[in-house]
Amino acid sequence: MNIILLFSEVLVSSLILIYLYKKYQCDGIYIWIMLFSLLIGLFSQVRVEIFSMDVNLGVGINALLFIAENILVQKKGPSEVIKVISLVILSNVMLYCFSILTTICDVSDINVITNNAFDKVFYLNNRVYFSSVISILVSIWLDAMLYHQIRQIKNKIVISNVLSTIIIHFIECVIFCFMTYVFKMPIINVIELIVIRYIFKVIIGLVGTNVIYIVNSIER
Amino acid sequence: MEIMLFVLMIVLSVFFIYVSLYLFEKDGLLLFYLICNVISYLLSFDILNVLGINVNANVILSSLFILVTYVFTEKLNIKEFRNVIKKTFITNVILSIFLLVFSLYIGTIDDVNAVNMQNIFLNNYKILISYPIVTLIIQLVILLFYNVIKVDVKNVNYRIILTSLTVLMIDTILFCISSYIFSIDFNDLFVLIISDYLFKVVITMIYTPFVGYMIGNKKVKV
Known about the structure:
The structure holds two protein chains of two kinds.
Chain A: H1 2-24, H2 26-43, E1 47-50, E2 53-56, H3 59-76, H4 80-104, H5 112-122, H6 126-153, H7 157-181, H8 187-207, H9 209-219
Antiparallel strand pairs in A: 1-2
Helix pairs in contact in A: 1-2, 1-3, 1-9, 2-3, 2-4, 2-6, 3-6, 3-8, 3-9, 4-5, 4-6, 6-7, 7-8
Chain B: H1 2-24, H2 28-43, E1 47-50, E2 53-56, H3 59-75, H4 78-104, H5 113-122, H6 125-152, H7 156-180, H8 186-216
Antiparallel strand pairs in B: 1-2
């Protein structure tokens, strides 16, 4: 079941990315990044099992976030990363403030099951939430620089995307898993989580190269 | 305590508008509008108890969302405003799809968050459908109603309050009925509509001078 959902998550979010770019160009990509960075922040605290392996929810859209970032760098240059970082920070800080303040308030006695579940999900686990946001911020900044550098040396989308995916996803996985799980579980399990997350993200990131090609073909 | 938290949320939301305008200049208000809409959507699943009264958790951001819509109505032409409506609708539909997909995942044995997500989003599937539709209707009502009122009422603040009294009523009635009918007791639903409406009116009045200032200020570009 989960693998089908992961497949649909990746497919639908890729199609949405292409659709938004086709309709609104770079503005559409900003909308995509804003929306999905909020979802990644919120849902990365949920762990699901795929092929009997533990991964955090939203791993598919997390990998595609870098594809969206690469499209922006491709179109507008590496300086766009500042705007992307500002957008991710603003949207996640807003979500964090409103979630925490809302969950501090008393819950109503109507629709109790939902209200209690809401408090548990939206009273964000600070450690996971900040690990997720920080790992994204650091890695999208590095990704923009690396993608741009590789493009300057060898102007081929496939080379820039594959190399940056392999390097940057590893850094992201290490930052996220270490910040989230170190001292919480044995180091060997943390390494296992890093490897699993990395494999999933690299596969999705490599498949995502096609999205960059499709976006480029739309422009032509 | 709850009142203090509400005041804090109002202050924070104004602060975030300034930050967004500062960071993104011309795109700032639209990006803030969309973020505000997404967070308002997420909070709409929760009902709070404030001073013994039941209100929806998104009353503040939902009121602010409607108020910022007036700024767009004033500063954009109809074609540009329709574009904003389309972007909002697309964002809401995407969010509905992904909230549904994410809540269908089966969590690990030691993680109860997946079950909690099912309790929030699957149990309240009506909100996943109603929120995007109600938001679309409200934006269209504002487009019609605000422009009609604009001809007769010259003062921006009066115009905002007059429009809001009607728009907020339509918004609250449509959203609460479509989201909670048959899920909660009819009397509770009726009280929820009244209290939501009153809270939204009060919050709108607090925000009105600020939004009036944004409409009048030529430095605020959209």
